[in-house]
Design a protein that fits this description.
single chain, alpha/beta, 8 strands, globular, binds zinc ion
């Protein structure tokens, strides 16, 4: 171990271990080997988010263009589930960074970009409606953009909330770094989606508004564990051969679970891997686990 944790720590935790947000790319990168790494250190459940469409060489011009991206993600989820003692589920949507590719690189007006992205979210919602996906993914850029692009992005996100409300499903968000996203949570509530079903991916240890999906930095996990509020744990493993060290590896969530247990945070482990997944996604990580 390089980080002082001990894999054997998961032996005392017989419950599920969920990574709430990662990507897998078996066509270009590690793919299912990453799932095996996760399993070998005790991981049991995964929420697999589709890669940004342009990473699969899809230059979307309409909602239907996202369909192959979603279909591929669903295939990968099935293959991952075969290797897990629990299971994987897909989270499908449109990466908010697409707005900049459409407007800056491809010459679309912000309103046109909004329409393409909203149409993509609409196609993702079809998969949730027929039970093939668990939830939606949306958000807004984490970097500075023009007022018109910001507005278009917020409108895309609000469309995702409308679908989430209709479908009673969770919406994962990519946003700017923040510990207070109550305004966004209010927009979700106004659309009919309870704030706790909105998940901020790549969260730090505290967040007002949506449910935080906390990146596995030890300081952030300690803060989340000590608060005792609902939270999830993630790596945002990107599985990109060009960015091997860009994010945490697939073993990180199980190792941090061991570390939390060693530090007396069993309640927080239960919150992050059993109670919050049930509350946010209506999934039962215990009933879907076969040891
Ligand atoms: Zn991600």
């Amino acid at each position: 171990m390089t980080d002082g944790t001990d894999d054997s720590g998961t032996d005392e935790w017989r419950g599920p271990i969920l990574d709430d947000h990662l990507h897998l790319d078996p066509d270009h990168a590690r793919g299912l080997e990453a799932v095996e790494d996760f399993v070998n250190v005790g991981g049991t459940h995964l929420l697999i988010v589709n890669k940004p469409s342009w990473h699969l060489d899809v230059e979307a011009e309409r909602g239907e263009d996202f369909r192959p991206v979603f279909e591929r993600t669903i295939e990968i989820v099935a293959e991952a589930t075969d290797r897990l003692s629990g299971r994987a589920w897909p989270i499908l949507g449109v990466h908010p960074g697409l707005v900049s590719r459409l407007v800056d690189d491809r010459g679309y007006a912000p309103e046109e970009a909004r329409e393409i992205m909203q149409a993509g979210i609409g196609v993702a919602a079809e998969y949730v409606a027929d039970g093939r996906a668990l939830g939606l993914k949306s958000g807004r850029p984490h970097y500075d953009v023009s007022e018109a692009v910001w507005e278009a992005s917020n409108e895309v996100m609000c469309r995702a909330f409308e679908h989430g409300a209709d479908l009673e499903c969770a919406v994962q968000l990519h946003t700017e770094a923040s510990e207070d996203l109550t305004e966004i949570a209010d927009w979700a509530e106004a659309a009919g989606l309870p704030a706790h079903r909105v998940v901020k991916h790549y969260a730090s240890g505290r967040l007002e508004g949506p449910t935080p999906s906390v990146m596995c930095e030890k300081d952030w996990l300690t803060e989340a564990a000590e608060r005792g509020a609902p939270f999830l744990m993630e790596t945002d493993f990107v599985d990109d051969p060009d960015r091997p060290g860009a994010v945490m590896g697939p073993k990180t969530v199980p190792r941090r679970v061991s570390w939390l247990l060693e530090n007396g945070h069993e309640d927080a482990v239960r919150i992050a891997h059993v109670e919050t997944p049930a509350r946010v996604y209506d999934i039962d990580t215990e009933a879907t686990l076969e040891r």
